[in-house]
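User: Fold both of these, please.

Assistant: Here is the first one.
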Amino acid sequence: MTILLFAAVCAIAYSARRVILLFVLSVFFAYLMNPAVKFLQHHSLLFRDLRGAAVMEAYFGVLILIGLATYSFAPAVVRNTVKAVDQVPIVLDRVSTGEIAADIGDKYGWNDEQKARLRTVLVRHREDCQGLLKWIDRSLSQAAQIVGWLALIPVLAIFLLRDGNRIVEGAIQTFFPQKHHQRARMVAYQIHAMLTNYIRAQVLLCLLSLAFYTIVLLIFRFPHAIALSILGGMLEFVPVIGWMSTAALIIGIGMANDLHWVWTTALLLLWRVAQDYFNLPRALGHRLEIHPLTVIFAVLAGAEVGGIIGIYLAVPLAASLFVIWRSRTHPAESPLAKDTGSELPPSLAEIARE
């Protein structure tokens, strides 16, 4: 019966994997918004010490910032993006036929032999170029569905921000016996602290990407460099697809405007290597108190097991398992124990007394 129950739970989880992923992303978004909500909760001029009102104020502030950014940058960005999208089929067609080899050779002073060599290579990979164009068409057709799913994340995060502590306490009361409640609360608080540090590390990585994109795009004089840099920094939160979308947009605009897109592509690839194998392991490893090598292994294993979803969930899942394991084997040496001490966090303690 235990095996059957476990198999049934796994089957249900697999069937509802998209919904589960949506809730997980909502949790991450709630942690991203939580610092602003806590600040407004303690310093609001109108609704001090009211959690629900602070959540609404934080969302209202975010909507204002989005509105200002849209009013300032959206028209020009959309115009250039449409121009780049219109140029992509033309560029890919010239790549597949090898005609672009003459343009590249003339720009960089190549001789006829070098141009012919590049043209031969491009003609041999004509099918790959045509396949890339088909992949772009399929991706654009799926974009509306993805945007619809993502729009639910802020809505679900409202409930987590407002009632997160009560949800955790209810789960502890339901799934743990009375004698383990105190210990379960401590583990829950340690996981909460770990996820807070994880989101802070992700914000740090986004700021690093923002700085890199800003410097590169300003040096090569890209149009609307600041707007593109902000977009690239925000998309850093999305594993794989985020930086690939940013790179495709930047390279497309570079091709359309003839702005040293070859050098830009090389710098983007170098930055990706530095971000994945230097910045990410050290930022996450330092914040989560796990070794950088463990971070790299978790990301690679997550990619092998779950693809993009596995990459996104690998590090927080590995850190959560590490917290649970240490709290069970060495309670006094649990990760983040120096922050939690022996007392419960006030929010969970108040709910437990109630």
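And the second sequence with its predicted structure:
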Amino acid sequence: MTSDVLSSKELSKIDPVFGQLSFDNHEQIVFCNDKDTGLKAIIGIHNTVLGPALGGTRMWNYNNEWEALNDVLRLSRGMTFKSAITGLNLGGGKAVIIGDAKTQKTPELMRKFGEFVHSLSGKYITAEDVGMTTEDMDTVREVTPYVTGISESKGGAGNPSPITAYGVFMGMKAAAQFKYGSDVLEDKTIFVQGIGHVGEALVEHLTNEGAKVTIADINQERLEEVRSKYDVTIYGGQDIYSERMDIYAPCALGATINDDTIYKLNADIIAGAANNQLADEVKHGKLLKDRNILYAPDFLINAGGIINVYAELENYDRQEIMRKTENIFNTTLEILDRAKANDVTTNSAALSIAKERIETRKREQGK
């Protein structure tokens, strides 16, 4: 009798949900399918101790369902800690729709997705993410009230991207304050990777402050469009991670800090809008610390978007949105100081604060 040794990847496929490394005691995973509209979606609800799970819907042309599942698990987990550390009474959730947003998205598909969201009776509240627009959220709103980020004309807070970018800007300035002793970004060399709505808004803040900004994106037309508006340079090299820069701002998809890039990275600070920037938060967080590269935890500094859509639930105004988003500066400094004092990674320090708040609420609820 012989027994084959299975790789960890093969083992996790035997248990495709509970066997995932990204499965972190999620409360609920919902698989949504509709033949007529072509909808194939996954909703991940990580934790609802602090409140209903709020998180955007991402439409992406994943290579396979395995990749989509891993993404929604990582993203929904991140939303739990984002809301907790920002002081919002929300849990963490996220949704992904498998498909090409440019060619496969239809109003019928969005309404059908909204029906699945509605079936959860408010346990999950959706919002805009990659591949989605404010108009898509308006369509979802036709079939369920459990959606945020709808048009201002319909009583919503509108596109969250500018507020997300402002929060990242605040977090970046806090990291500069900690690293350099000044939060002034004038003449700092900053590479912004990913020039979507958030990336462009961040570029505007940085160029207004006089930073030397280089932009990178897979969409050349988009790069030219942004360069025509702002004083930036388009990256023309082959390996952005090896370039000397003061600040690296990943604003596209996650896991750009990984085994292949981390030793090449030639920056003082990482501060960007992308979710889950560390492919392995423990391993890569420690390696960044060892290399004296300051990491501003993504789930903290990119929280402006959720602050913006939370306003729809709590009915606070634009002034309060901006006040809460500006406070990301203070919270970032608090976490960086805590990490230094306890000789831990910045990601670990941020997670510990978020988890403390969740555990405190659980004790108050007697759970």
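The first strand starts at residue 28 and ends at 34.
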